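Box 3.1. Reading complex inputs
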Amino acid sequence: MSATAVIHEQKHVPQPRQVGKPGGFLHRTNFTTAVISGIVLAAIFYFITGAIVQKVTGGGQQNNLSLPDGLQQQITMMYIGWIIGFMAGIGAFAGPIRWMLGHDLTHADAEYMAGKDMGRKKFWKYTTDHKVVGIQYLIVALILFGLGGLLAMLIRTELGVTWAEVFNPNFYNSLIGTHGIVMIIAMIIAVTGPLGNFIVPIMCGARDMAFPRLNALSLWLLVAAIPPLVSNLLMGGIRDGWTVYQPLADQAPVGMIGYQITIIVFAFSTGIASVNLITTVVTMRARGMTWSRVPIFVYGVVGSSIMGLIWFPMFQYSQILALSDRVLQTSFYTPASGGSVWLYENLFWLLGHPEVYVIVIPATAALLEIMPVFLRKPLFSYKLAIAGIFGIVGLSAVVWVHHMYMTGWAPSSNYPFMMSTEMISIPFSFLLLVMLGTMWRGKPWMKLPMMAVYAVIWNKVIGGITGVYLSDTPVDQYMHGSMFVVAHFHFMLMGAGLFGAMGAIAYWFPKMTNRYLDELVASIGFWTAFVGFQITFFAMFVAGLQGMPRRVLQFDQAFNMANWISTVGAYVIGIGMLIFLYAMITSWRSGKLAPGNPWGAHTLEAQTETPVPHENFPVLPVVTSDPYDFGVPDPYEMLDDAELEANEGVSKVGAS
Amino acid sequence: MSTVDERTPEAEEPESPTNRPPGMHLATRWMERPYARRIILLTVIISAVIIALTFVMVAFMNLSGGPASDIQGEIEKTMYVLTFTSAPLMGFTLAILTYSWWGGWGKVKGPEEPTEEGPAIRTNGVAVVAWITVCSLLAAFLVIWGLVELATITASSYGSVPANQQPNAAKAIDINVTGQQWVWSFQYPDQGKITSSELVVPINVPLYFNVTSLDVVHSFWVVEAGVKIDANPGAITNTGFTPNKLGTFNIRCAELCGLHHAYMETNLRVVTQEQFDSWVREMGGAKTS
């Protein structure tokens, strides 16, 4: 993208009075103070609630879960105390409190908060710079993937050891639930977190996100939400799968409260991040970057944010009502007292399905961004790609009932929802055509990001065809709740989402860390994981076809062979992912230094230097074309034109 | 002005070059490009492999003795139709993928940036319109097929098929299915309210299930009969099928229902009418029908 230097006159902005030194209270806060203050407030809330309950009930009573009376309320308040304490300790309330005191932030304060000249300390603080937040998101995502992957290995171990119970059923069921929700959260932030925060503002030619402090808030809310989720394993676990269907979830021990608090807080985090990204893209694009010149990755992130913003509250409501059922003895979901289990299922899947697209769309869009660069060809049918993305965003709103075909909630609704579900393959086919058209007659530069494109298209084709079976109600009547479904959604979420994210991270790694990702080691890891992935989940398809239900720990002998193969494959994935992680860590520490534009891309983020300077661009860029102006005139077309001209010449002679 | 041109020599080929080559001519020209035939060949091969794989898939589904009802038969038929419909598109996609991957259009290796650029194909109206049309038509076909099939299996599972069209025109047997942590129980209201932990049914008689749960959500899955419906607390859901194969088949719970969800399974035993009658007497029930 050709960027012309235009120097804007710096307007004089009247500054508020500086109170104290720049940064003020934030000098004293970091991750450690946050943890300490979180634990302290959690303990205070726990004991105060205990005392109040003791006072009110007189103590000693047992409820139907044979838990001490008031324990649920105490645990709930403990988690709330942790969240508030953590956010206070990290300095999230410093800004609002200063406003209330009438001490507006000055430019110097803002620069301190953005981590100017702070060194590595800024990664542990409430830093507003989008580049720091992007790196923080990447670290959080990696930690979550590590945890979720470890749980996956444990699950596969149990399923591979077909002759004994390795774990007791309670722990096994908790493994499944925790693996599910941890991986879902990790996948949701995997692309829009690190790359959406780090790359998108630079791609748009902005100096930062639209709301830098909200950006820090969304990151630290996410960090605060993780301990309640993980701690459930110590508190009886969430034994109900990641869907935590009611009323089974109501029977679960107090670990379930951790899940509910996490989802409620995570939904705030996602909503805030989505608003921030959308506002940034809508209002802060560089001069000349019209809507038909916006890179497709930005469209992908915006589409994903729109879905997150609209549908995450549904998930949040479902958990608020569930928590209220548990702690306040309401009965939204208790059939015995007039509640409905279908209410929960509807609220849950209203997010539960769009969430798949929240994950897959940005990963796909990142690959669409990568393809023109590595093929040195323009993106094929840019506008069709945009239509595809927004087609999926639109249709994602009306397909959730396909998760409920077999619930008996409303059998006649299966007809329209089957129709809408199968219709969503049409916008998906748009994106597929864009990929194929870009690949058509291109000469690929065989680097890891481009390899990821091939791997992801393969996985998407497999995930897509099996999706066709599942979208069809009659076939789903056999497949629903079987291992076939598990294999299918792993092909979509992991095969398309995670492998796409790996490609995207390999592509932007030099920009984010200043160093190349070690091509050889990372490729070995990537392909090992890919091969393991195919083994694991093809075997799982077979188990599902044979009729193995999901979320079981023991099963019919008929499924043994498929499960053994699947477990071996899972270990191969684990080894591959560890190699990839090793490549990331070593390259980050001591990889080859990368130039500003390592791949020859035309997008704005490739035009600024690496490491990206404090406010991204010394001079704000002006955009004069779209970022896909690669390529030379098509030789075949020139041939055709030449012939046409020759023919016309002949006919002209003939007519005269 | 004369319409006959005397000065130009007569063309040797019957279709002489014209101002605007017709579609057929363009397609022929396109097929002359070196990659076109190879991609078409790859598409055909891969589609054939996919279609062959469908038979393997269905064979896996039938490994435990199915199909034991018309519904499962319809499901397997639908699997074939869905795969045959999607196979060409899938084959085409994978053909391009493979061709590009193997370097059919050339490839650049090594750390050096590529020096030459590809053809600047921004879009191609014919390709876009053709792709959208084909995809939409295929999707529309899948939708229509699915709707018709859904109506068919709904008719045979809810017992809405008129009595004279049912196999043997037999009267349906009502069975109350109750799920609880972690067992299934089956009550036969018309056979003297006998209760069994195993589902024993006569062959070729329509069955009609009233499914409910005492505690949490379960899912009643008769694997080889292709029937599945959730058992919800506080609600009754209905399904049904007509068994058409003697033997023992699997019933499993398909919705996580707590600690011993994995062990919540039982058998479907399809027997002859005489065996069923004697089983009912053994269980202490009376044959009312």
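In summary: Strands of chain A lie at 3-5, 621-623.
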